[in-house]
Design a protein that fits this description.
By secondary structure, the protein is α+β, with helices and mostly antiparallel strands. 39% of the residues lie in helices and 24% in strands. The strands form 3 sheets. A 3-stranded antiparallel beta sheet has the order 5-7-6. Strand 3 and strand 4 form a beta hairpin. Helix 2 crosses helix 3. The radius of gyration is 25 Å and the shape is elongated.
């Protein structure tokens, strides 16, 4: 592998190659080691801050765009993400208890959506539609 020139304005401090471990830690299965090249560069702190800020901003913009794909749009053309309700909020909107709401989910009348590892939410539009049908 030939050395890559540093990014403009950066000074290449050191380049070295390491080999990945020979087994995966979780499944303990062998795999072919892959060389990993690491370039260590020096840069001023303010440039590093800007690089991190730009990278995080770009990642957040891509995540927002991916979440908004297929979403409804507001009159001004901005993407409107579906508003999610907690079980308690949805039950209050339907004027039922949380246990009854859980029954609606079990019966397929509502769909619950996982948020994070352990939280569930319901779409406001779906809850409103069920409330309209129940009248």
């Amino acid at each position: 592998m030939s050395p890559r020139p540093p990014i403009e304005g950066q000074k290449l401090a050191r380049t070295f190659t390491v080999q990945n471990c020979k087994t995966t830690p979780i499944m303990n299965k062998p795999f072919t080691p892959v060389p990993v090249r690491i370039d260590v560069v020096t840069m001023p702190v303010n440039e590093l801050r800007q690089l991190i800020t730009d990278t995080v901003t770009d990642a957040m913009n891509r995540a927002t765009a991916a979440a908004a794909k297929g979403a409804k749009t507001a009159p001004n053309g901005a993407a409107v993400l579906p508003e999610l309700l907690t079980r308690k909020e949805a039950a209050a909107l339907l004027r039922v208890g949380v246990a009854t709401l859980d029954g609606y989910v079990r019966d397929g009348m509502l769909t619950k959506y996982k948020v994070g590892r352990s939280q569930t939410r319901l779409k406001r539009d779906e809850v409103r539609e069920l409330a309209r049908l129940a009248q």
